[in-house]
Amino acid sequence: MPSCLIVGGGVVGLSIAYELARRNWSVTVLDRRQPGREASWAGAGILPPANRATARHPLDVLRGLSFATHREWADRLLAETGIDNGFQQCGGIYLARTAGEAAALAGLAEQFRDEEIPVERLRHGELASFEPALARSADRFRAALWLPTECQLRNPRHLRALAAACQHHGVVIEPDVEMIDARCVGGKVTCVETTRGERSADQVCFSAGAWTAELLKRLGVSLGILPIRGQMLLFRAAAPLLGRILNDGPRYLVPRDDGRILVGSTEEEVGFDKRTTESGIADLIGFAYDVLPALRDTPLENAWAGLRPGVYDGMPYLGRLPGLANAFVAAGHFRSGLYLSTGTALVMADLIGDGTPPFSLEPFRPSRG
Ligand SMILES: Cc1cc2nc3c(=O)[nH]c(=O)nc-3n(C[C@H](O)[C@H](O)[C@H](O)COP(=O)(O)OP(=O)(O)OC[C@H]3O[C@@H](n4cnc5c(N)ncnc54)[C@H](O)[C@@H]3O)c2cc1C
Q: Quick check: pTM over 0.85?
């Protein structure tokens, strides 16, 4: 049985492990903490609609594959583990406040129509009838789009389901094992050195999120991944206040079925510091109260931050490492790692298994630096 060692057990590493194990690989996942407790846990779980059949840009093709696969995985994870990851098609509303934002939204609507993704423009006055909780704030917005097929899932549940499904398929998950170095001989990684001794496998895949570039420096590989902090708030209402995801530029409100509402998020370049800050929280609270005034009477349950793996050109790195026949990277998914994790798993399992991915991964190649 061929073997693969995966370094980093976030949603990307666990998804690749799951897919390889389903294809009868012997897989081990190492994580220096408990798997799935970094960016993947911190995220909001927004899954914007995409259509692989009509997509032109390579990233949109990956989005389309990922979007279609989420529904299938949610059903399969539930059947295999009994854990419901909270996947649901709740729909999303995109908001514009200024003339410039309204023009950008019109362009976005055009792109959705081109890609045959259902989209509707909400006329003045329709927003509040759509989401009654916006009655007091609807006048702040010049334009709004309704995307009925936008979906969401609940990150902690999805990660629990993935880890359980991995174990169900025989994946060995090793928490609290940190990779510190790797040895390469004859153009291959022969051994990964960890805080708990050496590990080796036929193939090695590095998926350590925001930490991947630091790790791969030790193998002489340079990648343009840097941590971008995102802070998040969680309100807990007694009953649901909203039905749909609200997207307002880079910020959003995501309603869960149980009355909880996530409010995100900041984008900060502060190195590997994942503390929340007073100003970040105050900024998100101000945004939340402005869009949804009813939150003023709703308790704030929690606040946290995570480090997104940002990449200078917005494209994740997916592919074989230059000069190393048995080493791969899957990292740098920035704001979309939850979303792109399913498609990433499918194409990386093809590549690692010496198969042919369903589309060219050339634009995602690690050798672009
Ligand atoms: C606030 C916020 C909101 C977000 N919202 C969304 C959203 O709505 N939709 C979406 O699709 N994406 C969202 N994202 C982005 C998404 O969370 C990330 O792109 C994704 O989680 C990246 O997954 P990953 O597996 O690459 O990284 P991570 O989840 O960070 O996992 C990397 C793993 O590698 C491990 N590791 C690091 N170094 C080592 C080492 N030396 N040895 C062993 N293990 C190591 C870490 O412990 C960690 O578990 C959001 C992110 C944030 C922070």
A: yes
